[in-house]
């Protein structure tokens, strides 16, 4: 534990409550109401009101999901597009409130979610990193300390850190995003489809960094469609389909069931659930 | 983070997320998180100003020239076209116009940048949990720093036209503070509305212009037609901007109604705006 740079208070909690899981999701459902208009405007709202239509559609993204994740485990979340993986990640990160149920998170969460980081393309890489760090609740001093590590890890090349991010390639974007997420000293790291644009060299480096974090008893959520990386990095796996947990267990077994399911189709979902 | 914590005093790293009743997050942890992240709001506004080049020489000059030109336009409109029918002297009218107009543009700037702050903060909102109220507050800071240079211009105008001086002028920042509270509340309301109706931003300038004409900026409150006078207190800016110009431009104590009206409007707008914003903010992530 000595290699951990978490604060004293957090260290104490971790050792005191080693039996409590890092994340406890209890019967969580997330239903959100969203508009199907591309851009919701007052004008269309009036037109719709005149016609007596409703523009709100309910999306049941996550339904009655419960699971615990222990400290130090790496959990892969797999499932088809639109299965509710990202919504669940957002709920655990505290971005979306659950509609019902309860989520308990022990530790600092750092997220690297599918849309890239909250980067403003007009600002330089450095300014974005500082903003991201401050938004995550770090102090200015802490951000400054981490900035050098982030810069070294991202390996953008001479001068790019000072340039506006609109001049970056998508791979460079992801390098910065990943470097920021892993250097925020998270207890819980959530990575959602974030490495697709990185080159082979950076992917190897990223995988090594993730392994290092896990060895330091950090918890990691990895949402991915790359089954091989889930198999390689994770020691636990959850398969979600249509907002429900289909299966939980050893990555290999879950992935096998999932790939089988994809081939067979949804009609036999019930029999597969019993596996 | 944006969350309820159990025993947060002892255990700052535990978060519990539950559906909240009536849409409001637990207020104490919310405001604590808000206070902890104040550096973020400041940095956001600072980088925004830097990105907009307002810290360059010509950027700063523009911040001064723009309101001056506006003052000239409105002066032309109200004095020359109206045939100089006001009882006050031309110089005093110009000073009043500038004092009122500059502070009105501060208000307008705060509300319109605040209105766009949540929709503009898109990706940050989707990926991080933090009190969303930081975004309109950061816009408020930006508007304030854009307003500051115009105060030096006003000081010069005040001296040039030979405006009165007095110790009561030192009370003017009180009204500026009340106006800031009012602007914060309004910008939160518009920021939340903007998420639901993206055309709010296009209709806001017209709304603001009408509001300007209804407020004692281009005219003095006491020259308002008799039949409109009873309605004046219902315009929050009557007391907020009226009190400001009374103190700053005319160095006279505003009547008690203006103080009371100003405080009531400021507190009410801030309370309603922030409660409305907080009750809606958890939904922003799915609406963007």
TrEMBL record, chain B:
One of its GO terms (molecular function) is ABC-type transporter activity. It is a multi-pass membrane protein. One of its GO terms (cellular component) is plasma membrane. It comes from the Bacteria. It is found in: Cell inner membrane. Pfam families: ABC2_membrane (PF01061). GO terms for biological process: lipopolysaccharide transport. The chain crosses the membrane at residues 57-77, 143-161, 167-191, 203-221, 258-278. Residues 52-243 form the ABC-2 type transporter transmembrane domain. Belongs to the ABC-2 integral membrane protein family. This is ABC transporter permease.
């Amino acid at each position: 534990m000595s290699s951990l740079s978490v604060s004293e208070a957090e260290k104490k909690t971790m050792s005191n409550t080693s039996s409590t899981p890092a994340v406890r999701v209890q019967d969580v459902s997330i239903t959100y109401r969203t508009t199907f208009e591309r851009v919701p405007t007052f004008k269309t709202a009036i037109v719709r009101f005149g016609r007596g239509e409703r523009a709100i559609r309910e999306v049941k993204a996550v339904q009655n999901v419960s699971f615990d994740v222990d400290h130090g485990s790496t959990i892969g979340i797999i499932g088809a597009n639109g299965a509710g993986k990202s919504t669940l990640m957002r709920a655990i990160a505290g971005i979306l409130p659950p509609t019902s149920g309860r989520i308990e998170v022990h530790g600092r969460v750092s997220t690297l979610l599918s849309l890239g980081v909250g980067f403003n393309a007009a600002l330089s890489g450095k300014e974005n990193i500082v903003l991201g760090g401050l938004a995550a609740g770090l102090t200015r001093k802490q951000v400054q300390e981490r900035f050098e590590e982030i810069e070294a890890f991202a390996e953008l090349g001479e001068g790019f850190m000072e340039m506006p991010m609109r001049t970056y390639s998508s791979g460079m974007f992801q390098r910065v995003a990943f470097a920021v997420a892993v250097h925020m000293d998270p207890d819980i790291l959530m990575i959602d489809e974030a490495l697709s644009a990185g080159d082979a060299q950076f992917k190897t480096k990223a995988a090594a960094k993730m392994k290092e974090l896990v060895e330091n008893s950090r918890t990691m959520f990895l949402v991915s469609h790359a089954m091989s990386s889930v198999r390689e990095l994770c020691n636990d796996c959850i398969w979600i389909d249509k907002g429900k947990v289909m299966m939980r267990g050893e990555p290999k077994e879950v992935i096998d069931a999932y790939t089988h399911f994809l081939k067979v189709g949804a009609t036999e979902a019930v029999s597969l659930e019993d596996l | 983070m944006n969350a309820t914590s159990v025993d947060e005093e002892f255990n700052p790293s535990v978060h519990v997320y539950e559906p909240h009743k009536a849409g409001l997050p637990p207020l104490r942890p919310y405001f604590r998180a808000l206070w902890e992240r104040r550096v973020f709001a400041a940095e956001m506004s600072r980088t925004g100003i830097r990105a907009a080049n307002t810290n360059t020489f010509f950027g700063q000059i523009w911040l001064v020239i723009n309101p001056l030109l506006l003052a000239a336009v409105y002066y032309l409109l109200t004095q020359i076209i109206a045939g100089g029918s006001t009882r006050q002297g031309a110089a005093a009218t110009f000073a009043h116009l500038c004092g009122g107009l500059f502070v009105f543009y501060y208000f307008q700037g705060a509300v319109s940048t605040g209105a766009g702050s949540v929709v503009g903060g898109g990706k940050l909102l989707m990926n991080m949990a933090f009190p969303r109220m930081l975004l309109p507050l950061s816009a408020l800071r930006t508007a304030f720093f854009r307003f500051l240079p115009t105060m030096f211009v006003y000081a010069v105008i005040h001296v040039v036209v030979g405006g009165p001086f007095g110790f009561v002028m030192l009370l003017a920042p009180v009204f500026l503070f009340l106006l800031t509270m009012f602007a914060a509340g309004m910008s939160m309301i518009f920021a939340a509305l903007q998420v639901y109706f993206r055309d709010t931003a296009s209709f806001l300038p017209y709304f603001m212009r009408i509001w300007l004409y209804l407020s004692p900026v281009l005219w003095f409150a006491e020259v308002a037609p008799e039949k409109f006078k009873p309605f004046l207190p219902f315009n929050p800016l009557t007391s907020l901007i009226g009190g400001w110009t009374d103190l700053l431009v005319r160095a006279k104590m505003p009547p008690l109604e203006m103080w009371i009206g100003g405080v009531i409007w400021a507190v009410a707008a801030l309370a309603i705006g922030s409660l409305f914003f907080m009750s809606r903010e958890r939904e922003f992530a799915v609406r963007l």
